[in-house]
Amino acid sequence: MIATAACKRFLALAGGTACSATVHSVFDHAVNLELEGRVGLVGLIAETKALTPYAVSVRMERPFSEAGIRAGMAAAVASGHVFIPKAGFKLDCSKARAVELSLDSISIVPANVPRGAMAEPLLAVLREADATESLAALATGAGGNNFSNFLSPRFYALRKAIQSEDEEAAAVAAERFAGCGMGLTPSSDDLLCGYLAAQWMLAREQGRTERTTLFASLAAAAAKKTTRISATFLLQCGEGLVNLYSYDLFSAIFTHEDEEATRAVARRVLAIGSTSGADMLTGVALALQE
To answer: Which of 87, 49, 47 is nearest to 67 (CA)?
Structure first.
């Protein structure tokens, strides 16, 4: 296996003091590692999938699940390498292309564009999604499902608390919203990641970067109420970090690329997971519709 690209923050970790680790979970296209002293997980991600924060992209000859890697194995990250000795696994990350995934690094081009117009390319793509499985109906108005119907009032309670800048009420609302849905990253968490990331970008656009501390606290509150993997993505979002496809989407939106280009990037997000991408897009669209 060859490391082809890596989040800059992963490379900083790997190049720093040696960290002992444990394999948290193994899937065909991903391995998650628990590093000593870190709350969030770090990841090894198949090159064909979206690179995530604190992760490295790997060109694979076979799935991770067939490489002898098992949950609970001892691992280490040191000297630009990832080691899982019992599996005979060693990954050299020193030549991986460094990738920036921080929202703060995205250029914002000022333009008198209504938010509704900014959301329209995303809504066009969301209308292609299966609203009976995802939360897309919350943004598109299509017929929803049990999860979207259950979460709708909870989302609007969260939105109201954020708009009134009531941090305590918003934290309670974020906790109540988190952890709802099936999968390793429940639908409500995926939506919340998209929503908070879009709010982060809007705060930058409006010159109100102090608001990002609120979004970080909400991500931390939600992270306490969900799975370890989903909590990792929420906490990363609270740092202003997103996966590569979402990063490209926000770049397209806030530099006002043409609608077709924005829809093309949005479809890459839509393809993430079973419904994760649709739910992330829903969160972004909801923020832009305010």
So the answer is: 87
